[in-house]
Structure formats: C-alpha cells, structure tokens
Design brief:
The complex is a heterodimer of chains A (98) and B (456). Chain A is an all-alpha fold and 98 residues long. Chain A is built from four helices and no strands. In chain B, strand 2, helix 15 and strand 3 form a beta-alpha-beta unit. Chain B has a six-stranded parallel beta sheet with strand order 3-2-1-4-5-6. Chain B has 456 residues and is mainly α.
C-alpha cells in the first residue's frame, strides 16, 4: 500500500460525501440540468485522454487516446452548452427573458 | 517559463478546477444561481485542459488538435439543435461517450505498461475498464430504447438473471486473474468483450418506465470510471470530479427508485413487463363520464384553483405551448393555476420541468409532489394532461393526490391503458371527466371556448 493510494482513497470518500451533501440541496426542478452538468464535469477524463494521445508511446495508445479525447471533448462542449441552454429557459413569473 | 514554474501552474490549475467543480454544483442548487454554476464549471474545465496540454510528457499536439476540433464539431450541434424532448437520449449518448473515453484510456494504459503494473494500479484499471465498457454498451442500449430504435418494452427470457450474473461473475474472475497476472495479455480482449456484452444484457430487460432510474445509474458508473482513471494516473482532480459525478448519479437513481416504489435490484433484475400482463387480464368494462372542450372550458372558468398534472403524453403531443396558453388565459381571469410534477414524469429525472420551462411556464408555478399534495382537496379542478397515468394504482407507489380534487379532468386519446399498461381507478370515479382527444388539439379548443365565452 502506497501513501498515494491512501491519499487517493481519502480524497475519493471525502469528495463523495461532499458531492452527496451538495447535490442533496439541488432542487428537483433542476435534476435534468444537474445530470448534464455532472456529465460535463466527469468529462474531466479528457485530461487523461490528452496525455495518452500526446505521449505517442505506441500507435495503439495514440489511436485509443485520440478517440478518447474526441469522445470526452464532445461531452465537455456539448454538456456545458446544453446545460446553459436549459437553465436559460427557467424563468420566474414576470421575469423578462434574458 | 522554467520547467518548475510550469509544474506549479499545472498543479495549481488542477486544484482550482477541483474547487470550481464543487462550487459549480453548489450554485446549481437554485435556478437563480444555476447559470453561474455552469460558468464556474466551464472555467474549471478550461483550466484543467490547458494544464493537461502543458504536461512535458506530451511530444506531439497533432492528434490532440484533431480530436479537439472533431469533438467540438460533434458536441456543439448535439447541444444546440437538440430538442428538449430528446434530452434523455442525448444524456444517454453522452454517458456512452464518457464511459468509452475512460475505458479506452484504461486499455491504452494497460498495453503500454503491461506487465510492469503493481496490484493497486491493476485494481483501479480493471474497475475503470469494467465500468467503462459496460456503461458504454449499456448507455447505447438506453439511447436505442429512448430513441425508439429498439423496442421499449422489457425483453425477457427464461433464466435471464442467471445468465447475466454468470456473465458478470466470469468477467470479474478474469479481472481478478488479470490483477494477479498483469502479463496475461491474451485474456484482456476476453475481459473487455465480456464487459461490453454485459452492458447490453443488463439493459435488455429494462422497460421504458424504468429509464429514469437506469440513466441516473449509468451516469453514476461513468463518473466512477473517471474516478478510477484518477487512481490509475494518480490525478486528484479526476478522483474528485469522478466522485462528484458518481454520487450525483447514485443519489438521483435512489430518488427515482423511491418515486416508483422499487428497489435497485428490482429495477435491474425485476423486469417490470411480467407484472403488466397479469394485471391487464382482469380489466372489465366500466362506465366513464366524458366531456366536450366547451364543457371543460365552463368548468375551468368557474374554478378558483386549478392544478395541471402533466404527463409524458403532453410532451409527445407537443402540447406544452397550448398548456401555457391555457395557463395564461386562466391566470388572467384570476384563476390560480399551478403545475404538479411527479418525480418520474418524463423520461429522466426532472425532465418535465425542463419541458415546461421551455414552454415559458414560470418555474415558481411548478410544484413537486410533496409540496402540492396537501392542496388537492382545495383545488376545484385537477387536469392530468397525461396519456400515461402518473397517478398510477401500483400499490405503494407515491402518487399525486389528484383524486382528492373536487373535479378531475383527464385528457387521453382513448381508454387504452397507457405507457405503464395499468388501468387507472381515477378514470372511473364519479367526479372524473374524461376528455378524449389529442392533448394539443383539445387544449387548443378549450382555449377557444374560453375566449368565446369571454366575448359572449
């Protein structure tokens, strides 16, 4: 067992609890935008994909990495855009369209 | 910039991104701050991507650039032109993208480093690929069902659970063997194939009504796959973002399960379909009362409080805008109009709220089940504009107390049992008026009658 593993587990568990507490407070009104936003955030896998695609250690890893970057960038761009598009539609009574 | 400085910048950016992601979800809690939440998430993501690009291990940017452009070319149209009724499909598809990214990075890492992989990295890798591959095919199946490319009713066969569990067990066993012997590369494709197959079989028995739960669960798996990648690459940001997504999806699927009075295992292994067959057999012909649009208009005019209960049928008939007109017409005459939203209305958590918001219905008029149930006895008219019943008599399922209203009007195309295939007691009650017709046309006619009455 390395210290990295232990630190990683601490971070995972704490982030999980934090996430639970934060998400519990999200109004059911916004559960669809919540899902598309967390989906965009979990596209952080783009970081790992970029490294694999850029290291060019083997043809296989470069190909797989490039596909992975494409897939996660699709989620990053699409996820944030559609979340914002949905949220723009939520208006209170008498609130002027922004 | 010196190498040392770049390292600091990378680490700081990841750290800042982690904070921004948490803030992003925090701000999403209320509609007033939600858009700020999206901004925070975007900045966090931008920082993380820039930092990733600065890593000195990267020798060539050529393919990264190609992928960045290609991903944007796919992602932007998918977000900008997607109709709101299709958001569940889009979400399922994006879970598939996220999951396959994690699985492919895991695969690349495995082939690059094998057999020099320590046990811990192997455990994380196997988890990353198990979740990634099964979520990929599972989400594609969910997409197919939501898009009506595949039959939405549950596909079941004898011994299905046994086959699924055996398959999963074999995949896990091979995974464990690979953890112990990372050099056994010939087993790796078998492992990946079994995970992909399991994803398909897992979603086969799941019916349309259970999709909200399943989408939330796949969301959770995709997040956990990213977190596992974080363990493999020793990247804390990935662990945090993955854990946030994982808990969020898990939390939503629990809410959906509660709303349908089902347990997790029941959704995944229950195959709802069998229940329906037996319940439709005992249906007998019973008299119902029906009404015309002008009769409905007269009742609505005389009401002081109206609660509209939209179901997915409203969205299918594209009647949201007509419903908004009805809401406006009635509000102008001093009738209090509100909307009651059942947690599983629509095809993913919160879907109905988005559809009504798109039709420019103010969100402060949208009420959740628990807030509004006490008010039904005071409502003169409740109008479940639902073709498939939200107030389902499935025993124990939380229901909107529509039956407590003084008058109930139900818009439905015919008396055929709806989406869930279950008869609704509500339709046969004395105070219930059935309004037979297409939701969009019928609501339109009610509005016309209302304005005629006003003139006359």
């Amino acid at each position: 067992m390395t210290t990295d593993l232990i630190t990683g587990l601490y971070i995972f568990i704490l982030a999980g609890f934090l996430g639970f507490e934060v998400i519990r407070r999200v109004s059911p009104l916004l559960h669809t935008p919540l899902m598309s936003l967390t989906n965009a955030i979990s596209a952080i896998a783009v970081v790992g994909s970029i490294l694999i695609a850029g290291e060019q250690k083997s043809t296989l890893s470069t190909v797989l990495g490039t596909i992975a970057v494409t897939a996660s960038v699709t989620n990053v761009v699409g996820g944030f855009l559609i979340t914002d598009r949905m949220l723009k539609m939520f208006k209170k009574k008498d609130q002027k369209p922004s | 910039m010196s190498e040392q400085l770049i390292q600091y910048f990378i680490q700081f950016s990841y750290f800042a991104a982690a904070i921004l992601f948490v803030l992003s979800l925090k701000w999403l809690s209320a509609p007033t701050t939600a858009r700020r939440g999206v901004k925070a998430g975007e900045i966090g993501m931008l920082l993380a991507i820039v930092a990733a690009l600065l890593h000195h291990e990267i020798v060539s940017y050529q393919w990264i650039l190609v992928a960045l452009v290609l991903g944007s070319l796919i992602g932007v149209p998918m977000a900008v032109f997607m109709p709101m009724t299709a958001v569940p499909q889009r979400t399922a598809l994006s879970h598939a993208f996220g999951a396959i990214a994690a699985a492919l990075v895991g695969t690349a890492e495995y082939y690059l480093k094998t057999p020099h992989l320590d046990t811990f990295t192997m455990v994380a890798l196997i988890l990353e690929m198990l979740l990634g591959f099964l979520t990929f095919t599972g989400s594609l199946m969910a997409f197919g069902k939501l898009q009506d490319l595949l039959p939405t009713r549950p596909l079941t066969y004898r011994g299905q659970n046994f086959v699924n569990l055996t398959l999963l067990a074999v995949a896990v066993l091979i995974g464990v063997y690979l953890i112990a012997n990372p050099g056994a590369t010939h087993l790796f494709p078998v492992f990946a194939g079994l995970c992909l197959l399991f994803g398909v079989l897992l979603i086969l028995p799941i019916g349309g009504a259970d999709m909200p739960t399943v989408i939330a669960l796949l969301n959770s798996y995709a997040g956990l796959a990213s977190a596992a990648m974080g363990f493999v690459l020793d990247n804390k940001l990935l662990i945090i973002a993955g854990a946030l997504d994982g808990t969020s999806g898990f939390f939503l699927s629990i809410i959906m399960c509660k709303a349908m009075n089902r347990s997790f295992t029941n959704v995944l292994f229950g195959a709802f379909g069998q229940v329906q067959v037996s319940s439709t057999a005992v249906v007998e012909e019973r008299p119902v009362k029906s009404a015309t649009p002008s009769e409905a208009a007269t009742i609505l005019e005389a009401a002081s409080s109206v609660i509209i209960v939209p179901g997915y049928g409203m969205a299918v008939a594209q009647a949201q805008h007509k419903v908004r007109e009805l809401y406006e017409t009635l509000s102008k005459r001093g009738v209090e109009v509100r909307f009651a939203i059942h947690p599983v209305a629509g095809r993913m958590p919160g879907h109905m709220n988005v559809l009504l918001a798109e039709a420019e219905i103010p969100y402060d008029k949208l009420s959740e089940m628990d807030e509004i149930n006490g008010d039904f006895p005071y409502a003169d008219v409740a109008n479940p504009a639902a073709r498939h019943d939200q107030a389902s008599p499935i025993y124990g399922m939380p229901i909107l107390d529509v039956d407590k209203a003084k008058t109930v009007m139900v818009i439905k195309r015919s008396m055929n049992p709806g989406f869930a295939g279950i008869e609704n007691e509500l339709y046969y009650m004395d105070k219930t008026l059935m309004l037979f017709g297409d939701a969009k046309g019928f609501v339109g006619e009610i509005i016309r009658s209302l304005s005629n009455n006003a003139r006359g």
